[in-house]
């Protein structure tokens, strides 16, 4: 089983304004690759509210390539599926960026670790910081590489606690429908359990 945990930071309220892309690749329960890249956002301006959260500024990205230089890494790493914490945000970043670039979406199933965490740990908060703290995972929150790694480790804990051997088996045990990106459409990762139907609040970026 090979999965890619991802995280995006955005420069402004537009979901296409990716200014950082973090990733962590896991295979058979082990971390095999990780990294983070800064990108020139589209549209190319920074909202001070976003800067206060992640610390990325125009000075750091103005001479860099945009996400077009990095999106193909997803296919190059050959994951079976993608994971993100609050995937509704991160998957929408991919979709909005592809829409403005006139590109088809990368085709992958995906899991949301907010959805899995709400089922596995119903009596606590489910932000990335909350669940990382529960598992003793070091987190430099809103640094995209650190957030992606934390997401991947949280998902690995879910596999360990359920003894699931695949994403499909984990979803079956927890009552989750995997999300899926198609070339020009998507379906959300959702749970049928009443306690997990609350909308995952979009993280401020």
Low-confidence stretches: 196-205
Please report the first level of CATH classification, the CATH class.
Alpha Beta
Radius of gyration, whole Å: 16 Å
Tally of helical segments: 8
Helix-and-strand structural type = alpha+beta
The arrangement of helices and strands along the chain is: EEEHHHEHEHHHHEEEE
- Give the strand tally: 9
Tell me the major beta sheet.
7 strands, mixed
Strand content: 15-25%
Oligomer: single chain
Widest β-sheet, arrangement of strands: 3-2-1-4-5-7-8
Structure description:
The structure is a single chain. The protein is an alpha+beta fold and 205 residues long. It has a single domain (2-196), classed as Nucleotidyltransferase, domain 5 (2-Layer Sandwich). It is built from eight helices and nine strands. The chain has helices at residues 48-54, 58-61, 72-76, 87-101, 113-120, 128-135, 144-162, 167-174; strands at 2-10, 18-27, 30-38, 81-84, 108-112, 176-177, 179-181, 186-187, 190-191. A seven-stranded mixed β-sheet has the order 3-2-1-4-5-7-8. A two-stranded antiparallel ribbon has the order 6-9. The longest helix has 19 residues, at 144-162. It is globular. It starts with a strand and ends in a 14-residue tail after the last strand.
What order do the helices and strands come in, and which of them pair?
Layout: E1 2-10, E2 18-27, E3 30-38, H1 48-54, H2 58-61, H3 72-76, E4 81-84, H4 87-101, E5 108-112, H5 113-120, H6 128-135, H7 144-162, H8 167-174, E6 176-177, E7 179-181, E8 186-187, E9 190-191
Parallel strand pairs: 1-4, 4-5
Antiparallel strand pairs: 1-2, 2-3, 5-7, 6-9, 7-8
